[in-house]
Write a structure and sequence with these properties.
alpha+beta, about 325 residues, 3-stranded antiparallel beta sheet, 7 helices, 5-stranded antiparallel beta sheet
Length: about 325
């Protein structure tokens, strides 16, 4: 058993549905006159002689020519593809186009959902985040086999970074939401990532379960005597997109045409910050007064400054919250 030296409990602890929130926002946008065009992809923008956006050019399946949508504003909210779209806008920026490439980074994010048939964790338990390094419970033979394989597998036999999460999800029986970013930390993601993230599937679930069994020994009941995982688990995931300072990019797109904006790089707090980010972006687009306390700190143009880049690299510039 593990000796507990310190812990922190944050209350109240509640659930929200990201999918339902998204559908609610989309419904309200449509009620206000917004329209969607799916599937389609941005091919570029057309600008006036003074560099102001006049239209967005969209590629639509079945159409030989781009669809031109007249507009004075284009918003890059492309998530893990925000860097690719930003480069596209810079290339079609008219006057003032160019600037420095944004240092956006993508990393794999996965979650496993385990049906807790053994009631190993009470359904009303709070979220648990284990921050200390952990050694997984392997038998001597299993550890030796991993070391012989080498590479990623060999690393699993030693001490691994903490940060794994556990939280019960309501239901009968309830489920357990499990996360551990360390399992995909070695996966390199290109600037234009594949549509389907490279997940380690059942291996991710088993490794996360093994780690969590250090914090909650009852979860070891889902590991068979031969080391196999006996739990009913599903795995899915995608990407986190972030800048090196882990602060979002909200405001006019640096190096792009006038009327091009960005709302991206929200890392692991996208759902929590989505509404506030959208509100701030809307102020930029409509010309409304901006919050003096923080709006300037999120501007994409900060990455045009060599001094700022060096400050982030050296640690002289503080970084945002990391999940």
């Amino acid at each position: 058993y593990t000796t507990l030296f310190r812990s922190r409990h944050i209350s109240p602890d509640r659930w929200m549905s990201a999918q339902q929130m998204g559908m609610e926002l989309l419904s309200k946008a449509r009620d206000a006159g917004a329209a969607t065009l799916i599937p389609s992809s941005l091919q570029g923008v057309r600008t006036a002689s003074d560099g102001q956006v006049e239209a967005a050019l969209l590629s639509v399946p079945g159409e030989s020519e781009p669809l031109e949508v007249r507009t004075g504003a284009v918003v890059n909210a492309a998530g893990p593809y925000a860097g690719v779209v930003d480069a596209l806008l810079r290339g079609g920026g008219g006057e003032g186009g160019g600037g420095r490439e944004l240092p956006l980074q993508n990393e794999v994010h996965a979650k496993a959902v385990l049906r807790d048939d053994l009631s190993a964790v009470p359904g009303d338990a709070p979220m648990v985040v284990w921050t200390d390094p952990v050694t997984l419970p392997w038998s001597e033979e299993e550890a030796e086999a991993l070391l012989e394989i080498g590479g990623f597998e060999a690393s699993l036999a030693g001490s691994l970074p903490g940060g794994f999460h556990l939280r019960p999800y309501p239901g009968k029986p309830h489920s357990l939401l499990m996360l551990w970013e360390a399992i995909h930390a070695d996966v390199a993601v290109p600037r234009e990532p594949p549509e389907e993230a490279e997940l380690r599937g059942s291996l991710f679930a088993e490794l996360t379960l093994r780690a969590l069994s250090r914090a909650v020994p009852a979860l070891g009941g889902y590991l068979g005597e031969d080391g196999s995982m006996t739990a009913n688990v599903s795995v899915d995931g995608g990407y986190y997109s972030k800048a090196p300072d882990n602060l979002p990019l909200i405001g006019p797109a640096a190096g792009g045409p006038r009327g091009a904006y960005m709302c991206a790089g929200l890392s692991g707090y996208g759902i929590m910050a989505a509404n506030a980010a959208g509100e701030l972006l809307a102020k930029h687009v409509t010309g409304a007064p901006l919050p003096e306390a923080y709006a300037a700190g999120f501007l994409p143009e900060r990455w045009e400054s060599e001094e700022y880049r060096r400050g982030v690299e050296s640690g002289a510039v503080g970084k945002g919250f990391q999940i």
